[in-house]
Known about the structure:
- The chain is an alpha/beta fold and 377 residues long.
- It has helices at residues 47-59, 132-135, 139-150, 179-190, 204-210, 223-230, 246-254, 281-305, 322-338, 357-366, and strands at residues 9-13, 22-26, 35-44, 72-80, 92-96, 115-119, 123-125, 170-174, 194-199, 214-217, 235-241, 258-259, 262-265, 309-312, 346-352, 371-376.
- The protein contains ten helices and 16 strands.
- The strands form three sheets. Strands 3, 4, 5, 6, 7, 15 and 16 form a seven-stranded mixed β-sheet that branches.
- Helix 3 packs across helix 4 (179-190) and helix 6 crosses helix 7.
- The longest helix has 25 residues, at 281-305.
Amino acid sequence: xxxxxxxxxxxxxxxxKHARLAVGPAPYxxxxxxxxxxxxxxxxxxxxxxILQEVGTVxxxxxxxxxxxxxxxxxxxxxxxxxxxxxxxxxxxxxxATGSDKDENSSAAGAFQLYSVVRERLASPIxxxxxxxxxxxxxxxxxxxxxxxxxxxxxxxDHPTADPVPSGSTLLVWGGSTSVGANAIQLAVAAGYEVIxxxxxxxxxxxxxLGASRVIDYGSPTAVADLIAAFDGKSLAGAIAVGxxxxxxxxxxxxxxxxxxxxxxxxxxxxFDSVGDGRGRALRLxxxxxxxGSSTAVLILKTRxxxxxxxxxxxxxxxxxxxxxxxxxxxxxxxxxxxRFVAAPEALxxxxxxxxxxxxxxxxxxxxxxxxxxxxx
Length: 377
Ligand SMILES: NC(=O)c1ccc[n+]([C@@H]2O[C@H](COP(=O)([O-])OP(=O)(O)OC[C@H]3O[C@@H](n4cnc5c(N)ncnc54)[C@H](OP(=O)(O)O)[C@@H]3O)[C@@H](O)[C@H]2O)c1
């Protein structure tokens, strides 16, 4: 690619003080040796995206505005770095963009733009019959589930294969109808584990289709007791806790189980969605931060006293270990092609073009059920 043929990029820029996204020109950045550049045709929204808009300076203090956030991209490769071996220009791919991470801190590697720079090891080819919109639901949710299940400092489960051998143990996936949960169920089943999960009754069929053997309504006052009964006589493979406050409830279940008493925690004990704008914002934010800090400290103490280990998941940390290769190179491409793994949940396309990304953030923040908010580009 020469200067004359460098594509014109534009991005949905995040400004300071939780400003609304503003679409404007962005530089086109060439790939490093292990990177590819993608022309994004669909981007998906994760809770982290609106959380960064709401409280970015508090939780990601390294970010300098204006900045390009976003993790989930699907599109076509337009340029490959010198050391890239798995991709060529024109390939259809899905990838996780990690530009907001402290060790990258680069708008060029954010999702919400036409051209993103992504790491080869966080990208997979996708089959021709999988749309960009549907493929884009995968990256951060898939990576988060994979980190929780397979990283050595997390549940360290057996790896997924085309012919899983039954492990004889059962995983608790709290929040099976979340995007992270949908991936956790499928990955665990592909690794030979039985899965017991939670969801609202409207999503019981959905999580069963994904591979769960038993579903409990997490909104029921008897949810914890029902789960303890469901695990009676089973060997626990561990738990992955997805959904605000889910770790506390998982701890009550895990304490009553035999086996691997370990909880991989995807979510915080309180949500930032109550912070909002207007008078009293600073106080509301302080309350949420205090609640997260104090509830986490209490949880860690309680679980230690009960002999339960816990660990928080960082959904992009696989870029630095073997789990990225396991998922994006060895497992996902063939599993998608064979139909052994589906891109779930269903994409909810709310608009086309970067101007729709703010609406998409607002829609995800407003709450979704077994849907992933997507914008096509
Ligand atoms: N640590 C990380 O790196 C990382 C990365 C990605 C996401 N996360 C966190 O993981 C969580 C899920 O994210 P996501 O993108 O997968 O969410 P999502 O797809 O937007 O989740 C929507 C689903 O959440 C379910 N839900 C709501 N409250 C719940 C609760 N208390 N327990 C269980 N399920 C609940 C709802 O299920 P029903 O409709 O069935 O009621 C709904 O279908 C969020 O807390 C997010 O911040 C963490």
